Amino acid sequence: MKVQSPVKQIMAIHDISGYGRTSLSVVIPILSTMGIKVCSLPTALLSSHSQYNGYYFVDLTDHLMSILAHWKKLDSRFNVIYSGFLGSHKQISIVEEIIKTFGAKCDFIVIDPVLGDNGKIYKSISKQIVVEMKSLVKKADIITPNLTELFLLSGKEYNCKADEEKIRAMMLELSESGPEIVVVTSVPDNNPGRNFSVLAYNRNGQRFWKVPIDYIPADFPGTGDCFTSVLTGALMQGDSLPIALDRAVNFISYGVRATFGYKHDQNEGILLEKILDRLNYPMPISSYEIF
Known about the structure:
Elements: E1 9-19, H1 24-33, E2 37-48, E3 57-59, H2 61-73, E4 80-83, H3 90-102, E5 108-111, E6 116-117, E7 120-121, H4 127-136, E8 142-143, H5 147-154, H6 164-176, E9 181-188, E10 196-202, E11 207-213, H7 223-236, H8 241-260, E12 289-290
Parallel strand pairs: 1-2, 1-4, 4-5, 5-8, 8-9
Antiparallel strand pairs: 2-3, 6-7, 9-10, 10-11, 11-12
Helix pairs in contact: 1-7, 2-3, 3-4, 5-6, 7-8
Protein backbone atom coordinates (compact mmCIF):
# COMPACT_ATOMS: atom_id res chain seq x y z
CA MET A 1 0.00 0.00 0.00
CA LYS A 2 1.28 3.46 -0.96
CA VAL A 3 2.15 5.46 2.17
CA GLN A 4 0.58 8.90 1.96
CA SER A 5 2.90 11.88 2.44
CA PRO A 6 2.31 13.77 5.73
CA VAL A 7 2.53 17.03 3.78
CA LYS A 8 1.00 18.08 0.48
CA GLN A 9 3.15 17.68 -2.62
CA ILE A 10 3.31 19.82 -5.73
CA MET A 11 4.97 19.11 -9.07
CA ALA A 12 6.64 22.37 -10.11
CA ILE A 13 7.46 22.49 -13.82
CA HIS A 14 9.72 25.53 -14.16
CA ASP A 15 13.20 26.57 -15.25
CA ILE A 16 16.22 27.06 -13.02
CA SER A 17 17.87 30.48 -13.29
CA GLY A 18 21.20 30.49 -11.49
CA TYR A 19 21.27 34.26 -11.00
CA GLY A 20 18.27 36.41 -10.20
CA ARG A 21 15.26 35.50 -8.07
CA THR A 22 12.87 33.91 -10.56
CA SER A 23 11.34 30.53 -11.37
CA LEU A 24 12.37 27.63 -9.10
CA SER A 25 14.63 29.88 -7.01
CA VAL A 26 11.45 31.55 -5.68
CA VAL A 27 8.90 28.76 -6.21
CA ILE A 28 10.72 26.33 -3.89
CA PRO A 29 11.33 28.63 -0.88
CA ILE A 30 7.85 30.17 -1.00
CA LEU A 31 5.96 26.87 -1.15
CA SER A 32 8.30 25.20 1.35
CA THR A 33 7.72 28.07 3.79
CA MET A 34 3.99 27.48 3.34
CA GLY A 35 4.44 23.83 4.36
CA ILE A 36 4.27 22.28 0.90
CA LYS A 37 6.78 19.79 -0.50
CA VAL A 38 8.07 20.84 -3.94
CA CYS A 39 9.07 18.19 -6.47
CA SER A 40 10.91 20.08 -9.21
CA LEU A 41 10.77 19.20 -12.89
CA PRO A 42 13.28 21.63 -14.47
CA THR A 43 12.44 22.69 -18.01
CA ALA A 44 15.65 24.62 -18.71
CA LEU A 45 18.85 25.73 -17.03
CA LEU A 46 19.82 29.39 -17.40
CA SER A 47 22.91 31.14 -16.10
CA SER A 48 20.55 34.02 -15.25
CA HIS A 49 17.00 34.93 -16.15
CA SER A 50 16.47 36.30 -19.63
CA GLN A 51 16.43 40.00 -18.74
CA TYR A 52 20.20 39.86 -18.34
CA ASN A 53 22.10 40.13 -21.61
CA GLY A 54 24.22 37.20 -22.77
CA TYR A 55 22.61 34.54 -20.55
CA TYR A 56 23.50 30.88 -21.13
CA PHE A 57 20.53 28.61 -21.87
CA VAL A 58 20.29 24.81 -21.70
CA ASP A 59 17.06 23.23 -23.00
CA LEU A 60 16.21 20.18 -20.86
CA THR A 61 13.44 18.84 -23.09
CA ASP A 62 15.31 15.63 -23.91
CA HIS A 63 15.63 14.75 -20.21
CA LEU A 64 12.06 15.30 -19.03
CA MET A 65 10.56 11.96 -20.09
CA SER A 66 13.33 10.02 -18.33
CA ILE A 67 12.66 11.93 -15.11
CA LEU A 68 8.94 11.29 -15.42
CA ALA A 69 9.51 7.58 -16.14
CA HIS A 70 11.41 7.30 -12.87
CA TRP A 71 8.68 9.16 -10.99
CA LYS A 72 6.14 6.68 -12.36
CA LYS A 73 8.24 3.78 -11.04
CA LEU A 74 8.26 5.50 -7.65
CA ASP A 75 4.45 5.73 -7.83
CA SER A 76 4.77 9.47 -7.23
CA ARG A 77 1.54 11.34 -6.48
CA PHE A 78 0.92 15.05 -6.36
CA ASN A 79 -1.79 17.23 -4.89
CA VAL A 80 -1.15 19.92 -7.50
CA ILE A 81 0.63 20.28 -10.84
CA TYR A 82 2.04 23.79 -11.34
CA SER A 83 3.56 24.72 -14.69
CA GLY A 84 5.52 27.89 -15.51
CA PHE A 85 8.28 28.72 -18.01
CA LEU A 86 8.72 26.11 -20.73
CA GLY A 87 12.03 25.78 -22.54
CA SER A 88 10.67 24.76 -25.95
CA HIS A 89 7.40 24.17 -27.79
CA LYS A 90 8.01 20.41 -27.49
CA GLN A 91 7.56 20.71 -23.74
CA ILE A 92 3.93 21.69 -24.16
CA SER A 93 2.99 18.19 -25.33
CA ILE A 94 5.03 16.79 -22.43
CA VAL A 95 3.06 18.90 -19.93
CA GLU A 96 -0.14 17.69 -21.58
CA GLU A 97 1.07 14.11 -21.05
CA ILE A 98 1.92 14.92 -17.42
CA ILE A 99 -1.62 16.19 -16.86
CA LYS A 100 -3.02 13.05 -18.49
CA THR A 101 -0.81 10.76 -16.39
CA PHE A 102 -0.76 12.47 -12.98
CA GLY A 103 -3.63 14.95 -13.14
CA ALA A 104 -6.54 12.64 -12.29
CA LYS A 105 -5.42 12.37 -8.65
CA CYS A 106 -4.62 16.09 -8.29
CA ASP A 107 -6.75 18.62 -6.44
CA PHE A 108 -6.16 21.13 -9.22
CA ILE A 109 -3.76 22.11 -12.03
CA VAL A 110 -2.17 25.56 -12.29
CA ILE A 111 -0.62 26.91 -15.47
CA ASP A 112 1.23 30.21 -15.48
CA PRO A 113 1.52 30.86 -19.25
CA VAL A 114 4.91 32.57 -19.28
CA LEU A 115 4.96 34.29 -22.68
CA GLY A 116 5.75 38.00 -22.32
CA ASP A 117 5.14 41.28 -20.53
CA ASN A 118 4.67 44.98 -21.24
CA GLY A 119 3.17 44.19 -24.65
CA LYS A 120 6.15 42.12 -25.84
CA ILE A 121 6.97 38.42 -26.12
CA TYR A 122 10.01 37.31 -24.09
CA LYS A 123 13.21 36.77 -26.10
CA SER A 124 13.31 33.04 -25.32
CA ILE A 125 9.67 32.41 -26.34
CA SER A 126 8.96 31.33 -29.91
CA LYS A 127 5.75 32.08 -31.78
CA GLN A 128 5.08 28.33 -31.82
CA ILE A 129 5.05 28.26 -28.01
CA VAL A 130 2.50 31.08 -28.02
CA VAL A 131 0.27 29.17 -30.43
CA GLU A 132 0.49 25.87 -28.55
CA MET A 133 0.08 27.52 -25.14
CA LYS A 134 -3.46 28.43 -26.20
CA SER A 135 -4.19 24.70 -26.28
CA LEU A 136 -2.35 23.89 -23.02
CA VAL A 137 -4.21 26.41 -20.84
CA LYS A 138 -7.50 24.68 -21.73
CA LYS A 139 -6.32 21.72 -19.63
CA ALA A 140 -5.74 23.79 -16.49
CA ASP A 141 -8.07 24.50 -13.59
CA ILE A 142 -6.34 27.82 -12.87
CA ILE A 143 -4.34 30.09 -15.18
CA THR A 144 -2.48 33.24 -14.18
CA PRO A 145 -1.56 35.33 -17.25
CA ASN A 146 -0.45 38.92 -16.97
CA LEU A 147 -2.21 41.47 -19.18
CA THR A 148 0.15 40.89 -22.12
CA GLU A 149 -0.35 37.13 -21.90
CA LEU A 150 -4.12 37.56 -21.69
CA PHE A 151 -4.09 39.31 -25.07
CA LEU A 152 -1.72 36.70 -26.55
CA LEU A 153 -3.92 33.81 -25.38
CA SER A 154 -7.02 35.60 -26.66
CA GLY A 155 -5.43 36.23 -30.06
CA LYS A 156 -6.05 39.96 -29.83
CA GLU A 157 -3.76 42.94 -30.34
CA TYR A 158 -2.28 44.21 -27.07
CA ASN A 159 -3.87 47.32 -25.63
CA CYS A 160 -2.61 48.51 -22.24
CA LYS A 161 -5.56 50.91 -22.02
CA ALA A 162 -8.24 48.27 -22.51
CA ASP A 163 -11.21 48.88 -20.23
CA GLU A 164 -12.44 46.37 -17.67
CA GLU A 165 -15.39 45.36 -19.84
CA LYS A 166 -13.07 44.15 -22.61
CA ILE A 167 -10.78 42.40 -20.13
CA ARG A 168 -13.76 40.68 -18.50
CA ALA A 169 -14.91 39.45 -21.91
CA MET A 170 -11.49 37.92 -22.64
CA MET A 171 -11.39 36.29 -19.19
CA LEU A 172 -14.83 34.78 -19.73
CA GLU A 173 -13.81 33.48 -23.14
CA LEU A 174 -10.69 31.83 -21.75
CA SER A 175 -12.58 30.30 -18.83
CA GLU A 176 -15.24 28.88 -21.15
CA SER A 177 -12.47 27.12 -23.08
CA GLY A 178 -11.36 25.13 -20.00
CA PRO A 179 -9.91 26.74 -16.85
CA GLU A 180 -12.39 27.33 -14.05
CA ILE A 181 -10.35 30.23 -12.63
CA VAL A 182 -8.63 32.96 -14.67
CA VAL A 183 -6.40 35.39 -12.77
CA VAL A 184 -4.95 38.38 -14.64
CA THR A 185 -2.10 40.40 -13.15
CA SER A 186 -0.64 43.83 -14.04
CA VAL A 187 -3.95 45.35 -15.10
CA PRO A 188 -3.77 49.19 -15.22
CA ASP A 189 -6.42 50.77 -13.01
CA ASN A 190 -7.97 54.06 -14.08
CA ASN A 191 -9.59 54.81 -10.72
CA PRO A 192 -8.13 57.84 -8.88
CA GLY A 193 -5.35 56.99 -6.44
CA ARG A 194 -4.78 53.50 -7.81
CA ASN A 195 -2.42 52.21 -10.43
CA PHE A 196 -2.77 48.46 -10.99
CA SER A 197 -5.06 45.63 -10.05
CA VAL A 198 -5.21 41.86 -10.09
CA LEU A 199 -8.48 40.61 -11.60
CA ALA A 200 -9.91 37.13 -11.24
CA TYR A 201 -12.90 35.20 -12.53
CA ASN A 202 -14.26 32.01 -10.99
CA ARG A 203 -16.66 30.11 -13.22
CA ASN A 204 -17.91 28.29 -10.12
CA GLY A 205 -20.24 31.03 -8.93
CA GLN A 206 -19.64 33.20 -12.00
CA ARG A 207 -18.01 35.90 -9.92
CA PHE A 208 -15.29 38.44 -10.69
CA TRP A 209 -12.83 39.59 -8.03
CA LYS A 210 -10.47 42.56 -7.91
CA VAL A 211 -7.51 43.39 -5.67
CA PRO A 212 -5.95 46.86 -6.11
CA ILE A 213 -2.19 47.41 -5.93
CA ASP A 214 -0.47 50.67 -5.02
CA TYR A 215 2.18 51.55 -7.59
CA ILE A 216 5.88 51.83 -6.78
CA PRO A 217 8.24 52.91 -9.61
CA ALA A 218 10.18 49.65 -9.78
CA ASP A 219 10.16 46.58 -12.02
CA PHE A 220 11.45 43.41 -10.35
CA PRO A 221 11.67 40.20 -12.41
CA GLY A 222 10.19 37.13 -10.78
CA THR A 223 7.26 38.84 -9.05
CA GLY A 224 4.88 36.90 -11.31
CA ASP A 225 6.46 33.61 -10.18
CA CYS A 226 6.19 34.76 -6.55
CA PHE A 227 2.55 35.79 -7.00
CA THR A 228 1.39 32.52 -8.55
CA SER A 229 3.36 30.50 -5.99
CA VAL A 230 1.74 32.27 -3.03
CA LEU A 231 -1.68 32.05 -4.68
CA THR A 232 -1.23 28.32 -5.28
CA GLY A 233 0.09 27.69 -1.78
CA ALA A 234 -2.80 29.60 -0.21
CA LEU A 235 -5.37 27.60 -2.19
CA MET A 236 -3.62 24.37 -1.16
CA GLN A 237 -3.92 25.50 2.45
CA GLY A 238 -7.67 25.83 2.00
CA ASP A 239 -8.09 29.58 1.46
CA SER A 240 -10.92 30.89 -0.69
CA LEU A 241 -9.96 32.47 -4.00
CA PRO A 242 -10.36 36.13 -2.85
CA ILE A 243 -8.31 35.51 0.32
CA ALA A 244 -5.62 33.69 -1.69
CA LEU A 245 -5.50 36.66 -4.08
CA ASP A 246 -5.18 39.03 -1.14
CA ARG A 247 -2.35 37.04 0.41
CA ALA A 248 -0.44 36.93 -2.88
CA VAL A 249 -0.88 40.65 -3.60
CA ASN A 250 0.07 41.64 -0.05
CA PHE A 251 3.20 39.48 -0.14
CA ILE A 252 4.36 40.91 -3.47
CA SER A 253 3.57 44.48 -2.41
CA TYR A 254 5.52 44.04 0.81
CA GLY A 255 8.43 42.47 -1.07
CA VAL A 256 8.60 45.34 -3.56
CA ARG A 257 8.44 47.94 -0.77
CA ALA A 258 11.07 46.14 1.30
CA THR A 259 13.43 45.89 -1.67
CA PHE A 260 12.84 49.37 -3.09
CA GLY A 261 14.38 50.99 -0.02
CA TYR A 262 17.84 49.60 -0.81
CA LYS A 263 20.41 50.42 -3.46
CA HIS A 264 19.74 47.26 -5.36
CA ASP A 265 19.95 45.97 -8.93
CA GLN A 266 16.28 45.54 -9.84
CA ASN A 267 17.16 42.72 -12.23
CA GLU A 268 18.03 40.55 -9.24
CA GLY A 269 14.39 40.54 -8.16
CA ILE A 270 12.87 41.23 -4.76
CA LEU A 271 14.85 40.47 -1.59
CA LEU A 272 12.92 37.31 -0.91
CA GLU A 273 15.09 36.25 2.00
CA LYS A 274 13.98 39.30 4.00
CA ILE A 275 10.26 38.64 3.65
CA LEU A 276 9.65 34.87 3.55
CA ASP A 277 8.52 34.83 7.17
CA ARG A 278 5.65 37.15 6.22
CA LEU A 279 3.95 34.14 4.65
CA ASN A 280 3.16 32.88 8.15
CA TYR A 281 1.95 36.23 9.56
CA PRO A 282 -1.77 36.84 10.21
CA MET A 283 -3.60 38.24 7.20
CA PRO A 284 -3.97 42.04 7.07
CA ILE A 285 -7.41 43.51 6.50
CA SER A 286 -8.67 42.20 3.18
CA SER A 287 -8.71 44.55 0.22
CA TYR A 288 -10.49 42.42 -2.36
CA GLU A 289 -13.59 43.68 -4.12
CA ILE A 290 -16.35 42.16 -6.24
CA PHE A 291 -16.54 43.84 -9.64
